[in-house]
Amino acid sequence: MKVAQIQMKVSIDKEETKKRVVKFIEDIKDENVDFICLGEMFDCPYDINSFREYAEKEGGDIYTFCSSLAKEYGVYFSAGSISEIDDKQRVYNTAYVFDRKGNQIAKHRKMHLFDIDIKGGQYFKESETLTPGNNITTFDTEFGKMGLCVCYDFRFPELSRLMVLEGAKVIFVPAAFNLTTGAAHWNTMFKSQALNNQIFAIGTSPARDHKASYKAYGHSIIINPWGDVVSELEEKERIMIKDLDLSMVDKIREQLPLLKHRRVDVYNLEKRL
Fold it and tell me: What are 112-160's pLDDT values in tens digits?
């Protein structure tokens, strides 16, 4: 499975965002990639005051744009995440995935809201604007079952494990860690979730913009089921393309059968509605 991660800066203008996404995809159209990935809130400044302003209903402009790109280029499109608003005026941080025909095959509303107050570091409270989602999200592709979550969700091992128990061999994570938590935890988190669940973990971030109020860490990354870094960017705008051998998942799970060795007679993790 050939994956392209587009690490791009976030524009305050949605039309400019669309033009730049198309430009990036045009640059790689001859690479025959299977999946294209964008970062968290790729079309919206990562700011509490912007989430409601930029929010769209499902089926809106950016949604339709992403669906049409998937169909036009014949790719699976992990469309980062966008700000979504529902009929009750609740705002969500929502990730969509579209198949090669432009059909929506996954939707994940960020479950864990990023509310932090680090002394001498970052203060941010998503819950001031956003509503949490409640669904564990997996989806089927020609390559097998995949999982999807958004940024802070990936810190919670229970969520990743539930996706894996549903059959996920790859987890896509649009994310925008900041300079404090990114430097401290980004690599460690992706490695731990990948090796403990024996999956490919794909984290796609916006590029860092020093002029923005929220400065993303960048460093879009892929970790394999053994916990090795397959590829990692720095903080600048760039596209990263990698071929992933998904047979490695089954090989690692056979050689080191962690999932089979779980003591479900003693403990069990259940999906509850």
Answer: 998 877 777 667 789 999 999 999 999 999 999 999 999 999 999 999 9
Reading the block at residue 229, the tokens are 């870094």
pTM: 0.96
Predicted local confidence at residue 208, as pLDDT: 98
Q: Spot the catalytic one: 37, 40, 66, 235.
A: 40
Cβ contact 37:204 at 8 Å: yes
CB 105 within 8 A of CB 99: yes
- Predicted local confidence at residue 122, as pLDDT: 67
Q: Where are the beta strands (DSSP E) in 72-133?
A: 76-78, 82-85, 91-98, 104-109, 115-117, 123-125
C-alpha span between 147 and 140 (Å, rounded):
9
Considering the candidates 9, 107, 110, 169, report the single residue annotated as catalytic: 110
109, 71 Cβ separation under 8 angstroms: no
Name all domains of the chain by residue range, CATH numbers in brackets: 2-255 (3.60.110.10)
Is residue 151 among the annotated active site residues? yes
Distance separating alpha carbons of residues 77 and 69, to the nearest angstrom: 8
**Predicted local confidence at residue 273, as pLDDT:** 58
Q: How many CB atoms lie within 10 A of CB 272?
A: 7
Angle, CA 212 vertex, CA 207 and CA 218 arms, to 5°: 20
Residues of the chain whose pLDDT is less than 70? Answer: 121-122, 273
Which of 149, 151, 169, 191 is catalytic? The answer is: 151
